[in-house]
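Hi there. Long-time user, first ticket. I'm pasting a complex I've been working with (about 669 residues overall). I'd like to know whether the download I got is complete or cut off, because the file seemed smaller than I expected. Thanks.
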Amino acid sequence: MFGSAIRNIIIKNAQNAAKFKAIGAQCRHLRSNRSTQSEADTLKPIDLTTKPNDKELEPTPQDSSAVALDFGNREAHVPSFNLAAYVNNSSTLQHLVSLGVDLHSIERRKGLGEFVLRLDFEKNIKPCLSFLADQGIAPDDFGRMITKNPLLFKEDIDDLQTRVEYLKSKRFSDEAIQRIFTQNPFWLMFSTKRVNRRLGYFQKEFHLSGHDLRLMATKEPNLITYKMEHLRKSVFTLREEMGFNAKELQSLIVRKPRLMMIPPDDLVERFSYIHKGMGLPHSQIVQCAELLASREFRLRERHEFLKLLGRAQYDPQKDLYISPRTIVQGNNFYFVRNVAKSDLETFDLFLKTR
Amino acid sequence: MALTKVYDAATVFRHLNGVLNVYKPAGMKVGHVRSAVLSNICKGLNEMKQREPRKLPENTQLLGTGTAADSVLHNIAKNVDLSDDILCTGPRYMPDDIRCATVASLGHHTSGVLLFGINKGLRQSSRIQKNRPVRVYHVTGRMGTATENHLPDSRITARSNHKHISAERISGLAASMQASHQRKMYELCGVDLQTQAAYELACKGLIRPADNSLPVIYGIKLIYFERPHFTLEVHAINETQEYLTALVHDMALELRTVAHCSQLRCIRHAHFDVTDSLLRHGWHLPGIVKNLRQQQEILRAHPQMLEQERIELHA
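Hi, the file is complete. Here it is re-exported in full:
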């Protein structure tokens, strides 16, 4: 009886081409069908009723934008907001979960949920993973990498191989390559031409030696695939607004490549506090690039606390020198005990006066 | 009762009710503080022991191929509902799961005590809000320059000399302003000052406003003076940051000079003091739970904060 009802609906569906409505109704029927039957504890009738559906449902994936082929008959056309609904019936998704892939974070990004559903573990995923394993990447990192960039499976293995070969030809060590890929899985999506152009940009912009360039790219692999527009802005800020000369800039960005990924407005704010508030010259800021990487309120709190104690003395020529680098190290407890040589209660009281 | 360590996130979440006293840093919006606190709570909860994924119902149909290598069969044999796994559903606790509201907001440049009602504490927090308790501020003014919005980060509009200002003159002005504000307080009550009703009200002492439309100041006192800075202690209800900065500006004009507000700090909100408030490095789950308990004790010691029937002001 239910089967015939569904058939009627499907025929109507084909005539009207009102896909979604029909699919919804169909699911509802299927669901009610299943629930009533399973309550009755009869397994055989379920098979009987689902099999005829199967035949009729097969053509639909081709004409509608097919969601997936992998999971069971029942769930195939149930619309869902998340991947969790499909996990119990899809071995691909189960494999991904066992790798530690965070499906929840994938489905929040546009189009990726559908992409992951279409994947087949044996066909799409396995070659890619074995390729990554061949590069010496630890299997523990697969989950994080795929979570960050599931589109990795879209790439051709030969292309990936070429990209690795390119890095090797640029004399990146194996450890560097592993670090680059685990830290920034998007790197593998970039064509060799594009990566080459980017590396060339940095080398020319800062007159870096090959060794320094490799060091920088390995330290912060995200930098190479970052938005070019943003990088240009940051370089402008560092060079023109803050007035670091070529030599200083070079050592600054090799020490702390992350500076170029920080929003320029924040960077200027920090710089002006360090330069004007704390009175450190450019040469000393270059020595401790960590200062620029620390948030402004943190610097301000700690510097003013030191000033209150009379210990804010950053000139290495004089007595009671405190290295600016140690100011931004560690948590507040570490700072108060080891740098300020005070106690946390005093620091708390100080913070509550401002 | 013996104290036991709790490792279970659900237990902690169940007991995450009450009023939270947070020290808001200057230059950080209240919404920003709120989201930071909530996300830290969630981070803490998600690091604790989580509930296991649900079990599947007994006779779920196996849709896999049925071979030994097939992981579908494997998983269902364990009867674990994978769709309830953390990797599929996302973290168990998210900031939206926690209900949270401020008792009274603070401006962008104001630092100090900020009260949040969390989960079931929302009831208490809204009650505190309706009772309109007094807030105490330390407002620091800087004489010599006036700025556009009376705060240090905007453009300077005027400069003037402040040699003639002394602590006595500021104190005198503060006292006279306090008197005129108290007079205004009776006027806001809606009674004629020349009536018996007004006399009876005045006998009871200071009174509170009924709604939150108009700011009322109960006391202004000079507590610190070192040219060019001076600090006032202001007791007020329904005040805003703009109101306090304008107050400093107007006082300076009275004193024949100009000034802007260099610091605003809320040191007390009803009985919730700045000494108990939670600093930024304490905004983690253990700190927050401890703070909730402390504020609970304060509320228990002063039950009149939750239910006041009388019109006159206390605490």
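A couple of notes from our side: The domain at 134-269 of chain B is CATH 3.30.2350.10 (Pseudouridine synthase). Chain B touches chain A through 35 residues (CB under 8 Å).
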